[in-house]
Amino acid sequence: MRLNLGGLIPIAGGIYGLLVVYRLVQVSKNPEANELWLRKFGPLVKILSPLVVLFGIAQLLGLFR
């Protein structure tokens, strides 16, 4: 079984999105801008980030050949 290492990119992006939504990483150094971004995009990123991670795992395992 060969791994497609290109799947690591969506996995990393999805994990980063989750870290941002759970406020472990900040999008901006400005706290007000960070809070505004989270209010605007937070719910969407919270839903899409796990899906992006799953897509990356599927790509890593070669399910999309």
Keywords:
single chain, 0% strand, 65 residues, elongated, mainly alpha, 2 helices
Q: List the secondary-structure elements in sequence, H or E.
A: HH
Helical percentage: 55-70%
Q: What kind of sheet is the major sheet? A: none
Number of self-contained structural domains: 1
Low-confidence stretches: none
Shape: elongated
Count of β-strands: 0
Question: What is the subunit organization of this protein?
Answer: single chain
Overall mean confidence score, pLDDT:
94
Radius of gyration: 14 Å
Protein structure class: mainly alpha
- Total helices: the number is 2
Strand content bin:
under 5%
Termini, distance in Å? 13 Å
Give the helix/strand layout.
Layout lengths: L7 H14 L9 H30 L5
Describe what you observe in this structure.
This protein is mostly helical and 65 residues long. The chain has one domain (5-60). Helices cover 68% and strands 0% of the residues. It contains 2 helices and no strands. It has helices at 8-21, 31-60. Helix 1 (8-21) runs antiparallel to helix 2. It is elongated and about 45 Å long. The mean pLDDT is 94.
Q: Outline of this structure?
A:
This protein is mostly helical.
